[in-house]
Amino acid sequence: MTDATTISVHGDASYDITVGRGILSSLGEALPPAARKVLVIHPPTLAEQAERLRTQLVGEREVLLAEIPDAEAGKRIEVAAFCWQVMGKADFTRTDAVVGFGGGAVTDLAGFVAATWLRGVEVVQVPTTVLGMVDAAVGGKTGVNTAEGKNLVGAFWAPRAVLCDLDLLDSLSRNERVAGYAEVVKAGFIWAPEILDLVEADPETAVDPHSDAFRRTIELAIDMKARVVGEDLREAGLREILNYGHTLGHAIEHAERYRWRHGAAISVGMVFAAELSRLAGRLPDAAAQRHRDILESLGLPTSYRPGAWPQLLSTMQRDKKSRGGMLRFIVLDDIAKPTVLQAPDESLLFAAYQEVAG
Ligand SMILES: NC(=O)c1ccc[n+]([C@@H]2O[C@H](COP(=O)([O-])OP(=O)(O)OC[C@H]3O[C@@H](n4cnc5c(N)ncnc54)[C@H](O)[C@@H]3O)[C@@H](O)[C@H]2O)c1
Ligand SMILES: O=C(O)C(=O)C[C@@H](O)[C@H](O)[C@H](O)COP(=O)(O)O
Ligand SMILES: [Zn+2]
């Protein structure tokens, strides 16, 4: 392991996120010492690496592999049930542990399986995508989708440790890297403007996992997430800011039947949230334009189908930030000044949508 950075989540559930190269070799030490059985949940893409992990971990413990369907197809209750069956057949006890080895879809599912098996066993998250490292594997939001929408069933269940091995990113396509990077840009808009400056200075370098700018920006994003979830694990207040761009973004993912990458949908969602902020008289014009400029410089989408509004509005009613019939949005008063906009008028929402309808 070389040049590792440790970022800690403090609070009721405290744990470390380790970022660096060659980190995977320390997975054994991150597991609970009492675990005699370990279930590694992984997507088909990582089958060979998962087999290597198994070889690395066996010895003092039995290692089971659960290959699940790729991407959002893996985030279903039937897939959780398959994992429960594997654990049941292996007499998995409360001292045993789960490893989530994959992108955000896998770490969400693995965390949910760990949260629910025997009402909770430990999980170590090993994210293998940019998005997983900066966002999904950190913070203990776990869950599955239902036919009605994104992440509608789940649990808050903090991991024991998060290992971000940057070597794993070498096999990701540029498209995947950039889609995941949308969550890094989100961190820039809601918390750490230094991220925005670094992307503006050189977008291509910022998304290159071998550059200093990439390392700096992902660590800023992880640090932001660690601070926020350390203060508010269960999303009673502050944590809602992490949902910037997600109210519309999740509705787009649902409308697209998950053929869009999460980060791409969130990119459009952030432009919408910025326009909503601007039209509500909160965000200066230049800051809203900055959203488009930065996201477009990375090749992320900033517009969506004009005719989709009625369907998107209906799906947004099921957003977890809604209270009764009242929609709530995270908006910005300025860069790095997020706040909640309660029950905006439908005409304002429609006007903001017109700005992204392309
Ligand atoms: N829990 C949270 O706080 C949180 C935060 C953000 C996003 N999410 C969730 O995360 C999911 C999106 O995560 P994602 O963008 O990582 O997508 P993903 O998990 O679907 O992975 C994207 C693709 O990359 C492949 N892949 C993974 N690692 C690879 C590697 N190292 N090399 C080559 N290919 C690899 C996967 O097989 C998949 O096809 C969404 O379901 C989203 O809702 C959760
Ligand atoms: O960690 C959080 O809190 C987030 O909102 C992070 C988001 O990037 C992430 O996509 C999350 O899964 C959204 O959660 P949801 O509660 O809106 O489903
Ligand atoms: Zn997200």
TrEMBL record:
Entry-linked InterPro entries: Dehydroquinate_synthase, DHQ_synth_AroB, DHQ_synth_fam, DHQS/DOIS_N, DHQS_C
EC number of the protein: 4.2.3.4
Keywords in alphabetical order: Amino-acid biosynthesis, Aromatic amino acid biosynthesis, Cobalt, Cytoplasm, Lyase, Metal-binding, NAD, Nucleotide-binding, Zinc
Pfam family of the protein (one): DHQS_C
Record note on cofactor: Binds 1 divalent metal cation per subunit. Can use either Co(2+) or Zn(2+).
Domain 3-dehydroquinate synthase C-terminal: residue ranges: 180-322
Domain named 3-dehydroquinate synthase N-terminal: residues: 67-176
Catalysed reaction equations from the record: 7-phospho-2-dehydro-3-deoxy-D-arabino-heptonate = 3-dehydroquinate + phosphate
Residues that hold Zn(2+) according to the record: E183, H246, H262
Subcellular compartments: Cytoplasm
Cofactor(s) this protein requires: NAD(+); Co(2+); Zn(2+)
Molecular functions per Gene Ontology: 3-dehydroquinate synthase activity
Pathway the protein acts in: Metabolic intermediate biosynthesis; chorismate biosynthesis; chorismate from D-erythrose 4-phosphate and phosphoenolpyruvate: step 2/7
Binding site for NAD(+): 70-75, 104-108, 128-129, 141, 150
Primary localization class, coarse: cytoplasm
Role noted for this protein: Catalyzes the conversion of 3-deoxy-D-arabino-heptulosonate 7-phosphate (DAHP) to dehydroquinate (DHQ).
Record PANTHER family: 3-DEHYDROQUINATE SYNTHASE, 3-DEHYDROQUINATE SYNTHASE, CHLOROPLASTIC
Family the UniProt entry places it in: Belongs to the sugar phosphate cyclases superfamily. Dehydroquinate synthase family.
Name listed for the protein in its UniProt record: 3-dehydroquinate synthase
Organism field: Microbacterium jejuense
